[in-house]
Amino acid sequence: MANPFITVNDEPILLSQALKYLQTAGKLQPMLTDILREYILDRELQSRTDLDVPAASIEQSVVNFRLERNLSDPQAFQQWLESNRMTYEAFHQQILSGFKREKLKLSIVQPQLEEYFKQRKPALDAVVLSRISLNDYELAETLVSRLKEQESRFEELAREYSITNERSFGGMMGAVGWSTIPDNLKVILQQTPPGQIVGPMEVEGGWCIFRVDEFLEASLDNAQVKQRLQNELFEQWLNQQLQSTKITLNIQD
Questions:
Q1: In a domain, 231, yes or no
Q2: pLDDT lower than 50: segments of the chain
Q3: CA 46, 47, 51 angle in degrees (round to 5)?
Q4: What is the pLDDT of residue 142?
Q5: Could you give phi then psi for residue 17, rounded to 5 degrees?
Q6: Spatial distance between the Cα atoms of 121 and 111, rounded to a whole number of angstroms
Q7: Which residues contact 209 (CB under 8 A, 6 or more apart)?
Q8: Do 146 and 180 share a domain, yes or no?
Q9: 58 — phi, psi (to 5°)?
């Protein structure tokens, strides 16, 4: 008889039965996808000779990990390892694998990054907006008049009259991607200098007064933008590998 995959209440469960449970629960495919991803990455890492990681970098990463989680005490760290069913060697290997995967990702995506950024830039550019949302058009016109005559501050009117959550922040919506803004509103906002008022504009059955606060142009100098695009490119590469991988599932009793 095959060795059990796990034992529950002294009852052995074979791997084939565990897979059937996952299949019945509709969770087999996600698990197989995760296995395939790890297989592809492992094979790619084994085939590369340009992904060496200095030992000092690994040790520093271990130190940082322990400091961030208050695991400086050796006993506390050992307890953490045991609670995560991990040996120190396995933990060390996990850190090393993380470094190698990051280097692998960069080596794959870096040649495409500039061109991909140009393609994605229109969707990454954003505008910082403030908004007053109302149900009453006449009230909206009155508030616009007060703003243009500088009789009231935008933040005060937003807190007093706006019916959406931004009222708590003086109408501040924060950065909004151009790709999420309706075309008719986008055209007007793009032509409006920062600090100017737009509206009332009909939006989703209500009336909105907008203030353009700042235009944000996406740049690869922005670490978050760069990281996002690198991750997108790497996922595309992984998905291409998955699609070209042949898999046969054998579930036997």
A1: no
A2: none
A3: 75
A4: 93
A5: -70, -40
A6: 17
A7: 131, 132, 134, 140, 143, 144, 147, 197, 198, 199, 200, 201
A8: yes
A9: -65, -45
Model pLDDT, residue 251: 66
Does residue 120 sit within a domain? no
**b/e burial code for range 47-60 (CB count within 10 A of at least 16 → b):** eeeeeebeeeebee
Element (H, E) at 176: strand 172-177
> How far is residue 39's CA from residue 244's CA, in Å, rounded to a whole number?
13
| Predicted confidence (pLDDT) per residue in 19-66, tens digit | 888 889 999 888 888 999 999 999 999 898 888 889 999 999 999 999
**HEC string of 186-231?**
HHHHHCCCCCCEEEEEEECCEEEEEEEEEEECCCCCCHHHHHHHHH
Q: Cα–Cα distance between 230 and 214 in angstroms, integer? A: 26
Q: How far apart are CA 253 and CA 248, in angstroms?
A: 16
- Please provide the distance, in angstroms rounded to a whole number, between the alpha carbons at the two ends of the chain: 10
Does residue 249 lie within any of the structural domains? no
Number of domain units in the chain? 3
| 103's tokens | 């280097």
What does pTM read for this prediction? Answer: 0.71
Token pair 């109302």 is found at 134
The radius of gyration of the chain from alpha carbons, rounded to an integer in Å, stands at: 27
H or E segment and range at residue 173? strand 172-177
DSSP state letters, 63-80: HHHHHHTT--SHHHHHHH
